[in-house]
Amino acid sequence: MHEHEFWLAKLFNDHLAGPASAFLDMIGVKHGDRPWTAWLVMELLVVAIIMILVAMLRSSLSADKPGKLQHSFEVAYEFLKDQARSAGIHHPDKYVGYFGTVFIFILVANLIGAIPLFESPTMFAYVPAGVALCTFIYYNFMGLKENGPVKYAMQFVGPVWWLSWLILPIELVSHFARPMSLTMRLYGNMFSGEQVTNVFLQLTYLLVPVIFMALHVFVALVQTYVFTLLTMIYVSNAVSHEH
């Protein structure tokens, strides 16, 4: 029955099914006898990898002699800050923490699928949907915080008051469609890339898989950038005072 179960999920289900089932029962979530799924264990693995990287970075921080890991994070920070500024955010330092979190999580989640015997958690719709929902909540919260409820609400009715009855439903549909758009874009590209790579791995083990794995890495990088850039644009629109 479980011969096609992902090996890491099988390991968790064989040894940790009890605690997971108890937790799911406590919060009222229905589950089977093997509650650990591939996307969940891979997502936990991604989080663990990021935590280890951050711990390594924190233990080696130095203003005088920064190491390669610190340099890498500093370059990523400056890149994200410049991109946020280009997206129209006047004070990107206030938001780059969230942008960096999204960027690093999606990047590691996408790239881990290029490693044999592992799968990208972003090829399962639940993971992109979770990040997209966080982004939706974040940019709306920051918009309310920066502009106040009244001014932020005015963004949804447009500059011409007598057309508000037409603009309001269009804006609401547009905003509520954003999580779905972010989810489907990331999920669709990562799922299709994973399937193509797996097909060619089954056909041959030499040159062709290397090419498609390189393509998988390229798609992973592009989708990470696109998701983060769209997040920046949504935040920029939400916190703008010019509406």
Structure, briefly:
The chain contains seven helices and no strands.
Attribute tags:
single chain; 243 residues; mainly alpha
Indicate the topology.
Elements: H1 7-26, H2 38-59, H3 68-86, H4 96-111, H5 126-154, H6 164-203, H7 207-239
Overall description:
By secondary structure, the chain is mainly α. It has one domain. 74% of the residues lie in helices and 0% in strands. It contains 7 helices and no strands. It has helices spanning 7-26, 38-59, 68-86, 96-111, 126-154, 164-203, 207-239. The longest helix has 40 residues, at 164-203. The protein is globular, with a radius of gyration of 21 Å. The chain starts with 6 loop residues before the first helix and ends with a helix. 25% of the residues are buried.
Order of helix and strand elements from N to C terminus? HHHHHHH
Residue stretches low in confidence (pLDDT < 50, at least 5 long) are none
Number of helices: 7
Overall average pLDDT: 88
Residues in β-strands, percent: under 5%
Task: Report helical residue fraction.
Answer: over 70%
Our measurement of the CA-to-CA distance between the termini, rounded to an integer number of angstroms, reads 57 Å
Which class best fits the helix and strand makeup?
mainly alpha
What's the total number of strands?
Answer: 0
For the biggest sheet, the summary is: none
Shape: globular
Count of individual domains: 1
- Tell me the Rg in angstroms: 21 Å
